[in-house]
Amino acid sequence: MKKKISIHDIAKEMKVSSATVSYVLNGKAAEKRISKEMERKILDYARKLSYRPNRIAKSLRTGKSRIIGMLVEGISDPFFASIARIVEKLAGEQDYRIFYASTENDATIARNLIRAFRDAQVDGYIIAPPPGIEEDIKELMEDGFPVILFDRYFPGLSTCNVVVDNYDGAWQAIQHFLEHGCREIGFVTLSSAQTQMRDRLNGYTSAMQERDLTPCVLKVPFEERTTPGKITDNIRRFLIDNPRLEAVLFATNYLATAGLEAINSLQLKIPDNLAVIGFDDNTHFSLFTPAITALAQPVTEISEQVIRQLMACMATAPEPPPRSTVVLPTTLIIRESSIQHVKNNVL
User: Fold this and answer.
1) Which of 40, 68, 87, 158 could share a disulfide with 323, CB 3.0–4.6 Å?
2) Could you tell me which residue, 24 or 130, shows the higher pLDDT?
3) pLDDT: which is higher, 59 or 173
4) What pTM did the predictor assign?
């Protein structure tokens, strides 16, 4: 096994102190008045030996692990996978690594993961929080850890948050349906008090009430969110019970996917029997026939803001920065599923 090269090995070869080598490798040669010639020799020798710093030893010296803990609802979800990938790239550009894990929107899982991240001595946290972990987030902040919440947040906590305008996104989707002649418009969501779900429901309800239209809402039980078959059954029953529906807005991409299965099982034609829009775009929606209209979240901008906010928080740690909430717009990607050509509901 090849011997790992240490700072002491480089110092011995260069006939200088380990501190001198450390200053050079950490970019402090000028600050410590080390000659340009010696700086060049040390760097050249380190490159020649393919020297890599020992992160554990460095973290003990600096008190920083250069690791960020990231908790998402589900890393396999296209939205969270895209965010995690971009955040990892942006963090890497600043010499940080990302440890990420899925909470499945479960408070117990989230608490266990936060404890594991504490044991790993991460420097900061990026969290899409499940309901019920307000006290855990508060405790992290009281202990001086920088915390950024994204996608959803807790109104009662003074955190830095990065979200999209869920209210306006849902409102715009309903306006689109209305502009194309639909009046009987349903909304399929989760039975959840999370901020993103609450705002999407409020946006839908407001848009309907502004036109004196009656909302028609299905709230899938929160505990059934991880069981696609049960979601599909709920949506199928909802459509059968509401045969006058001309259009449906789905509050998440996985609800939309289950909804498409339910619509297909009832032999309804999209968009002529039922127009459809999903919240959260993904690559699969453009591959459906007909292609599915969706509200796209700005994943690149979300990721950039998350990293920007976290770096600002870490710069002031352990003192928390003032609470701030960055709100980004959604974009309605209009495809074939939301524009009806005829109205002939077969239910």
Assistant:
1) 158
2) 130
3) 173
4) 0.80
The pLDDT, as a whole number, for residue 53 is: 63
Domains within the chain, CATH numbers bracketed: 7-53 (1.10.260.40), 66-164+299-326 (3.40.50.2300), 166-297 (3.40.50.2300)
CA distance 141 to 274: 47
CA distances from 304 to 79, 129, 162, 297 (A): 15, 19, 10, 13
CA atoms within 13 A on the CB side of 134: 9
Per residue in 33-44, pLDDT tens? 899 999 888 888
CB 96 within 8 Å of CB 67: yes
Greater model confidence, 273 or 28: 273
